[in-house]
Structure formats: C-alpha cells, structure tokens
C-alpha cells in the first residue's frame, strides 16, 4: 500500500472507531497518547489466551513449549522491526519502566555492583558515575526521560544538565554542543517530541556523544510507531518505546540495548527467570535479555505486539510515514489559519511528526478539550508529561491533536471545523 486513500481504508480494521461519542461519529486524534488496535492484534492475543496460554521458559509440557516459541517469535519480530537482534530486545512494563531499568542498572554499577560478560572487555565499571560526571537531557523531554536521570544524578552525585529550547520549543545540534563537555557520561533525548513534533538530529547527537565517550539513550516512543527505524544503523546505545502507542496492548514496553552493553550492565531488578545459579550466599545472572526480565513475563502482550508490528509492516512503513506527513500538514495549515491559536513546534514547511499542539487564547486547554469532546473529537489536553517545556513556553497546558495510520482527511477536516469554533463558543 502506498497511497493516502489505501491507508485511509484501513480504518475499517479498527472496531473501536466505529462508534458515536456524544451523538457524533468518533474522531480519534489522540494516538500520541494511546493508539487503537486493529482486529488482527485483538484476535492474536485472544487466540493465544484461549489456546496456548502458559508460563514461558519453564515447564516441559506442550503448552509451555508452544507459548515460549510464540513469545520468542514476537521478540524476533519486534527486533526486526527496529533494526536490532532478538537478544537486544528486553520486555518491560512500558517505556517508562524501560528507561528506569537503564537508570537502575547504571545506579547499581555506580554502587559497585558487578554486571555480566560484556564483549569487547566491557564491564560494569564502564557505567559507574561519580561526583563531577554529567548527564545531559533536553528541556523538551517527557517526564519519563527526565525524572529517572534526575534521580540517578541525585544518587550518584553527578550533575544533570539540559539543552535549552527556543520560543517554539525547539533545539538544535549546536545547542547540544554548547552543553556537552568532556565530563558528559550520558545523553538522553527523544527521537520525536510528544509536544512539538520535532524530529531530533539523531546521527549528529550520536556522533557528539561518541566524541566525549558518552552513552546515548533514545526515547523512541513517538518514532517507532510512525516511521522506519533502524536502531543499529542510528548507533544509539539504548532505546525505549511502548507497545500501546504502536497498535499494541498496554502493560508492555521495549528496552533496546546494544548486546555488549546489556550483557555488562548489572540488573536493577532481581528474582526468578533471570538467573543461572542461586545459592543462599548469592546468584549468577543470565545473559541479556533475560537478565532484565525478572518474574512472570507479559506473554500475551508480547504476542499481540508481534501481531501489531506485522500489521504495520504489511501497511508499509514508508507509506505510513507519508500518510501521516500529509495529514500533519493539513492539520498545521488548517490550525494556522484560525485566529487566536498559537501553534507549538516547527513552522510551516518544516519537518514535524503527525501531531500539532496549540494554545487557544483566552480558553484553558481543558475547556477546549471538553468542547471538542462534545463534538465527538478525542484530543489530548494538559502538559503532556512535559511540564518544563510548557513552563519555558509560558503555558500551563496545551491541546494536542495527533494522527495515525487509521485517520483520514475527513477526520482532520472535522477537527479543524470544530477548532475554529472554540473561541466563539466561549464568547471570545
């Protein structure tokens, strides 16, 4: 599939979209928060639960073997989808959990905990932080990619620094170069901002980190679902993304890490399923990814995510990206023509992801969202877990409309018609 119309026809695959809300056909423009699921994903999880539900990597009975095989097939599918090896993909509770797993592991290494058998002579000492070391984020980060590093800095005595944004909420590689020093040990940043839609200069950031020997951590929550992604080619050390933003279930996140790094990191959580040998005095841990999957795994969720990436592959990732670009341009151009709206992020003609956040003069974002909801239109309102960014922009909240593979030009036009009436509705 390669045309806007062909992808628009996929809407019929999503049962939830076929309903009315407050007397209007549902227009769902909140996929940056949670995407809807096609029938094939719902059916894949249901079929697994009805026919093969069992504990994986334990037990010798047939169901356990079948469940383990499907579980690992899903891991391989997700790895292929993002340009990784299966052993570089560890299941987590969500992307927030995945980012915390990295921070916990670095914290453990900083306390002297040993890791595993990393290749190329890498040991846990590679990750240890000390007072005077620096961690770098951007002012535009989601809280999930900010607070773990705040906590890690507080625990280790390292200093957290940030790349500032401009009046549009944007930053450049030159801004990053002005902050990164030879004391920088880790740089964490979003591939795509969940507020501005800005696409980060990942290759340049990876090169900048390499020039000072720093690790890179990529928040790929808003990129993995929407655009071709090859983590190995990008060269990042770690990455995280969520299943529920890419047509999959809640309760599942993905941690990517280069194999030699994951195997050298000490696990931040311990328990069953991630060990080789346990005595009353100590334990030895499995190689990655199992060393980061303590306890009972999210098996049916992983199977469902495997089906989701298969669906996106069949749609065509380049086609999905072009579809969203077209809808995003329609969104931006339409909103830019409505008086009293302040749009956040890249301007007309600049690259942006399939989302637009804006402020309505004289109307609180929550009131604007409730008005849109009365018209059957679902958008996100609030600070989008990015309070520092909103504070920098002089806002407490904004309205965000985001598109995905199942949205149509009609969805966008219905939203724009309603958005044009917000200020009038409130008497402005």
UniProtKB/TrEMBL annotation:
Keyword entries, A-Z: Pyridoxal phosphate, Transferase
Catalysed transformations (reactions): (sulfur carrier)-H + L-cysteine = (sulfur carrier)-SH + L-alanine
A GO molecular-function descriptor: cysteine desulfurase activity
Domain of life: Bacteria
Names of required cofactors: pyridoxal 5'-phosphate
Pfam family, one: Aminotran_5
Domain annotation Aminotransferase class V: ranges: 27-415
UniProt protein name: Cysteine desulfurase
Organism listed in the record: Gryllotalpicola reticulitermitis
């Amino acid at each position: 599939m390669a045309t806007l119309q062909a992808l628009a026809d996929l809407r019929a695959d999503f049962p939830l979209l076929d309903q009315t809300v407050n007397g209007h056909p549902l227009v769902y423009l909140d996929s940056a928060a949670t995407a809807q699921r096609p029938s094939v994903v719902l059916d894949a999880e249901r079929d697994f639960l009805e026919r093969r539900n069992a504990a994986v990597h334990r037990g010798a009975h047939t169901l356990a073997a079948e469940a383990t095989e499907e579980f690992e097939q899903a891991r391989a599918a997700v790895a292929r989808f993002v340009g990784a090896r299966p052993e570089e993909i560890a299941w987590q509770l969500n992307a927030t959990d995945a980012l915390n797993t990295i921070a916990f592991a670095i914290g453990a290494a900083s306390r002297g905990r040993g890791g595993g058998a990393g290749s190329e002579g890498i040991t846990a000492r590679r990750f240890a932080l000390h007072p005077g070391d620096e961690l770098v984020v951007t002012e535009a980060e989601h809280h999930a990619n900010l607070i773990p590093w705040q906590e890690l800095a507080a625990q280790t005595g390292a200093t957290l620094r940030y790349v500032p944004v401009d009046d549009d909420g944007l930053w450049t590689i030159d801004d990053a170069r002005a902050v990164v020093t030879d004391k920088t040990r880790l740089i964490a940043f979003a591939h795509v901002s969940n507020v501005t839609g800005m696409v980060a200069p990942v290759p340049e950031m990876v090169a900048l980190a390499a020039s000072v020997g720093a690790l890179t951590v990529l928040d790929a929550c808003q990129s993995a679902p929407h655009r071709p992604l090859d983590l190995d080619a990008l060269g990042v050390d770690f990455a995280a993304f969520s299943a529920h933003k890419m047509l999959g279930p809640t309760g599942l996140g993905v941690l990517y890490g280069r194999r030699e790094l994951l195997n050298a990191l000490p696990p931040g959580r311990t328990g069953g399923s991630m060990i080789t040998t346990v005595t009353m005095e100590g334990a030895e841990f499995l190689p990655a990814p199992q060393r980061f999957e303590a306890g009972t795994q999210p098996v049916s969720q992983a199977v469902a995510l495997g089906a989701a990436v298969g669906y996106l592959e069949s749609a065509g990732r380049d086609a999905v990206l072009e579809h969203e670009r077209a809808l995003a341009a329609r969104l931006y151009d339409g909103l830019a023509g409505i008086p009293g709206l302040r749009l956040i992020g890249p301007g007309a003609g600049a690259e942006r992801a399939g989302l637009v956040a804006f402020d309505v003069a004289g109307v609180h974002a929550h009131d604007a969202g409730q008005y849109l909801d009365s018209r059957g239109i679902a958008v996100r309102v609030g600070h989008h877990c990015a309070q520092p960014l909103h504070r920098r922009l002089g806002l407490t909240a904004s309205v965000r409309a985001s598109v995905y593979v199942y949205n149509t030009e009609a969805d966008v036009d219905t939203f724009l018609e309603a958005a044009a009436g917000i200020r009038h509705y409130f008497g402005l």
